[in-house]
């Protein structure tokens, strides 16, 4: 069976090394008025409640610039709620079923932005980026920071497919 993810709409509009490299000016220059953030390997260490260094300060800078932030995650509700508390009570959508487009539209609505002005930041091409692109949002990929702990074999396979996808698109330097 052919893996259609390699032909999918999974090319990010923008690339950054890590979320803390993205400034409010970057978001505005992308046409963004609101931001969606992924959790695992984007803002927190995989399968933990621990924020990456600098994320709390980054959230403060983005909020101070008047940019609403919504967590959009496939993780379960209780974990999303606990991490949201660490992020000053950000609104969140848990069990988002990314890349399903509904969660992006819902997040944009929560943030008070049109989907075309909603910047989704995440580390996975076939969930965060593909879903954002299909929903009409602005997709941003950051490099994943650590190897996934839970379902490690599954994620190793995904990371290999992401690498192949980026190489096939001539974006091997973005791995």
Could you explain how this protein is built, in words?
The chain has a single domain, classed as HAD superfamily/HAD-like (Rossmann fold, 3-Layer(aba) Sandwich), CATH 3.40.50.1000. It contains six helices and six strands; from the N terminus they run βαβαβαβαβαβα. Strands 1-6-5-2-3-4 form a six-stranded parallel β-sheet, with helices on both faces. The longest helix has 17 residues. The N terminus is likely disordered.
Present the secondary structure layout.
Elements: E1 14-16, H1 24-29, E2 34-37, H2 55-64, E3 69-72, H3 77-86, E4 92-93, H4 102-111, E5 118-122, H5 125-135, E6 138-142, H6 152-168
Characterize this entry briefly.
The chain has 175 residues and is of the alpha/beta class.
Q: Tell me the overall shape.
A: globular
Order of helical and strand elements = EHEHEHEHEHEH
Q: Show unreliable segments.
A: 1-6
**Major sheet attributes:** 6 strands, parallel
Count of discrete domains: 1
Please count the beta strands (DSSP E, at least 2 residues each).
6
The helix-and-strand class reads alpha/beta
Rg (C-alpha, Å): 15 Å
CATH architecture label: 3-Layer(aba) Sandwich
- Percent of residues in helices comes to 25-40%
Key attributes of the depicted protein:
175 residues; alpha/beta; single chain
């Amino acid at each position: 069976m052919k893996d259609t993810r390699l032909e999918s709409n999974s090319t990010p509009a923008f690339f950054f090394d890590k979320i803390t490299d993205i400034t409010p000016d970057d978001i505005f220059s992308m046409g963004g008025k609101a931001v969606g953030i992924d959790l695992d390997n984007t803002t927190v260490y995989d399968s933990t409640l621990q924020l990456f260094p600098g994320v709390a300060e980054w959230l403060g800078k983005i909020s101070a610039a008047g940019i609403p932030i919504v967590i959009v995650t496939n993780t379960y509700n209780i974990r999303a709620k606990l991490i949201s508390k660490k992020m000053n009570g950000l609104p969140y959508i848990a069990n988002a079923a990314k890349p399903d487009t509904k969660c992006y539209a819902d997040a944009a609505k929560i943030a008070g932005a049109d989907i075309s002005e909603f910047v989704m930041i995440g580390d996975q091409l076939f969930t965060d980026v593909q879903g954002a692109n299909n929903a009409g949002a602005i997709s941003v990929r950051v490099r994943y920071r650590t190897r996934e702990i839970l379902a490690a074999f599954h994620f190793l396979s995904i990371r290999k497919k992401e690498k192949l996808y980026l190489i096939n698109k001539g974006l091997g330097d973005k791995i």
